[in-house]
Amino acid sequence: MHAYELFTAVKPAIVNDMFMWMRETDRNLYKTALGSLATNRKLRLAFLQKKPATEQIAWMHKTLMLKSSDMIGEHLLQVYFMKGQEEMLATFCDGLEIPHDGNGQVEGELPETLDADKLKTAVDALLEKYDPALVALYLYTFNIQTPDGWEELSKTLAEDDRLKLA
Q1: Which of 58, 84, 110 is the last residue of a domain?
Q2: What is the mean pLDDT of residues 17-28?
Q3: 60 and 47 in one domain?
Q4: Fewer Cβ close by (within 10 Å): the C or N end of the chain?
């Protein structure tokens, strides 16, 4: 799945939480996201900034569903998971025994393959602690970090009914 497809399929509440996190913890990131999407749609940032936050977020979500916003969407998902969901990333990396900095930032290269048993254990650990739709969004986001995704993860996402985006 591409990022724009993820934004189409995911629960709006998760996107709302993502942008509210950005707005509350890193105003510059939020403004940059809004500005990048405005530029992409040939709108002036000032026009969007006059709207209430709820309308801004709804507009960003709608815009991120467009194929033309795919790169921006992928980047925003990466930033959100790396900065806003560090514990989730660390749990996943620990489960797969992927070396990381303690916050989920992978040290070195991502593995070429994922061990199916370790993947199942890592996914189960995530689902015990987090909203399944958020876990699914994270796993889909992780899977687009390599051109064709990981075969094991793609299979898990397709077959595990707990990993539905909506």
Answers
A1: 84
A2: 94
A3: yes
A4: C
Structure token pair of residue 17: 């939480």
Bridge partners of residue 106, in order along the sequence: 100
Per-residue pLDDT reduced to its tens digit, 50-85: 999 999 999 999 999 999 999 999 999 999 999 999
Whether the pLDDT of residue 103 is over 80: the answer is: no
Task: Answer yes or no: are the C-beta atoms of 86 and 104 closer than 8 Å.
Answer: yes
**Does any domain span residue 165?**
no
**In contact, 115 and 156? CB cutoff 8 Å:** no
Alpha carbons within 13 angstroms on the beta-carbon side of residue 109 total 5
Same structural domain for residues 93 and 114?
yes
How many structural domains comprise the chain?
2
Q: How far apart are the first and last CA of the chain?
A: 14
Asked if 119 and 125 count as a contact pair (C-beta separation under 8 A), the reply is no
Strand (E) or helix (H) holding 92: helix 86-96
Does the pLDDT value for residue 104 go beyond 70? no
Q: How far is 166 from 133, CA to CA, in rounded Å?
A: 6
**Other beta carbons less than 10 A from residue 10's beta carbon:** 23
pLDDT tens by residue, 141-156: 999 988 889 999 999 9
Percent of the chain past pLDDT 90, that is, above it, reads 76
